[in-house]
Write a structure and sequence with these properties.
binds ligand 16Z, about 450 residues, eight-stranded parallel beta sheet, 11 helices
Length: about 450
């Protein structure tokens, strides 16, 4: 159907900026704002919900929430140290909450009084972060919440002309803030929009289309997530013709494509994930701190995303004083040490066409060399894995990344067995799989009676 504000393309972007984003595969998400000060606790009680939702869940009066800005002293905030955690993690990009749902801005915005300029330090947090991360070769993306609980013209729904007039003023305010971000920080590589699920935004698909157009005009190459977009009819992420809006699908929030489904690889996409079970902002309570993910589970998620051509954005919630949470830094370090040895199977890699899902982990393929990797994240109880190659190929070599050649046994045409040899304390093993065409044409694989 004819859409004015639908998808701007039918196929994935292939320009250099998008190829760079796609090849990053691993990013560091950061949620930081006033919510890090109470950190999930209000009036002495733990509120067992995402820390960044505290003002809503605990029904904090607006003035009391705004007064937190006076305590936002950045006593222990050091952009260099944050950037060092991204290096430790092996992240190639970082996405920072410029403004979350409470409306507080991490930059001195000219369009509101609720920003860093009106805090004791007055520091431009975004400016310091952009400098520190880019000094380490790490791209910076901006998260921006369209939803704004504080702005008087925000509306969840549009019930009457007064609502429409107010919300038009709000959209104008938000457009001005986005123009301001593009103006002040022109090296930013992407925008991650959030807070676009309400009826008010869905009824203004034109505005979401305009935002994408404005940003791409001012910042050529900039990457925009699908979560910004609504079309003429209010369809989100994917337009009413079934085409992806924005440059990559960003619907995977605290979840990955389950079950593993090769059709996901047809699009660019990114999954974002918390380290605690369910809080993006730092939550000090045992409700959050007792649920931190194991580094090897994070590695499994990274390999899962890569095997389906997606990026993985792991979230960090710095504490109210600006220090990173030690437990999160430790997880970053362990994951980064794994990536330092095995990143060859992740960075610049994607879906391995023709290689079936093996069950014990994932196959990935280097998008430029075609080299295939086997990432064993769920070693079978037998201690051995079966490598089933695409028909017509034979296994001529296995190289355990970080060590060297690895033995295997041929069981039949295109089926090989690999003895893993006990658990590895260095985390999931990765093999580079070298193959060549079978000397004799292999018989077709046994037909699978279940299909
Ligand atoms: C359940 O409804 C939600 C869940 C998460 C969100 C926000 C989180 O605060 C975080 O910013 C995440 C990326 N976003 C979707 C918003 C609404």
């Amino acid at each position: 159907m004819e859409l004015k504000y639908g998808a701007s393309r039918e196929k994935p972007r292939e320009d250099a900026a998008m190829q760079r984003f796609r090849g990053h595969r691993v990013g560091q998400f950061i949620h930081w704002g006033l919510y890090a000060l109470p950190a999930g606790r209000w009036e002495g009680k733990d509120v067992e919900f995402a820390a960044e939702f505290l003002p809503r869940v605990a029904k904090v009066p607006q003035q009391r929430w705004e007064a937190l800005a006076n305590d936002f002293t950045l006593a222990d905030f050091d952009a260099e140290r944050w950037a060092d955690t991204a290096v430790a993690l092996g992240a190639r990009y970082m996405t920072i909450t410029t403004k979350h749902h409470d409306g507080f801005c991490l930059w001195p915005s000219a369009h509101t009084d609720f920003h860093m300029g009106n805090t004791p330090s007055g520091r431009d947090v975004l400016g310091e972060l952009v400098a520190a991360y880019e000094a380490r070769g790490i791209d910076v993306n901006f998260y921006y919440s369209v939803l704004d609980w504080r702005h008087p013209d925000w509306r969840f729904t549009l019930e009457n002309d007064a609502d429409n007039l107010a919300f038009a003023r709000y959209l104008d305010f938000a457009m001005k803030q986005l123009e301001e971000l593009a103006e002040r920080y022109p090296s930013v590589k992407g925008f991650w929009f959030d807070g676009t699920w309400d009826e008010s935004v869905k009824a203004n698909g034109w505005w979401t289309w305009e935002v994408e157009r404005m940003l791409k005009e001012r910042l050529p190459g900039v990457v925009v997530n699908s979560r910004l977009r609504a079309d003429d009819l209010g369809a989100r992420h994917v337009d009413s013709n079934g085409l992806l809006m924005g440059d990559y699908e960003s619907g995977y929030e605290r979840r990955l494509p389950e079950p593993w489904d090769r059709s996901v690889a047809a699009r660019d996409w990114e999954a974002c994930m918390t380290i605690p079970q369910a809080s993006w902002g730092y939550h000090q309570g045992p409700w959050a701190q007792s649920t931190l993910k194991h580094p090897w589970d994070v590695v499994d998620m990274i390999a899962h995303c890569t095997s389906l051509g997606g990026n993985f954005l792991l979230n960090f919630g710095p504490r109210g004083d600006g220090s990173m949470a030690p437990a999160e830094v430790e997880i970053a370090r362990t994951v980064g040490e794994w990536l330092a040895v095995n990143g060859e199977a992740i960075y610049g890699c994607g879906y391995a066409e023709g290689w079936d899902y093996p069950g014990w982990g994932y196959f990935t393929r280097d998008s430029s060399t075609g080299k295939v990797f086997a990432v064993v994240t769920r070693a079978p109880a037998s201690g051995r894995i079966r490598l089933e190659l695409p028909t017509g190929l034979e296994l001529v070599g296995l190289r355990l990344l970080g060590s060297g050649e690895y033995p295997f046994k041929g069981l039949a045409d295109s089926v090989f067995e690999v003895e893993l040899g006990g658990a590895s304390n260095a985390g999931p093993r990765v093999f580079a799989v070298e193959t060549s065409a079978l000397a004799h044409p292999a018989s077709e694989k046994e037909p699978n009676p279940d299909v």
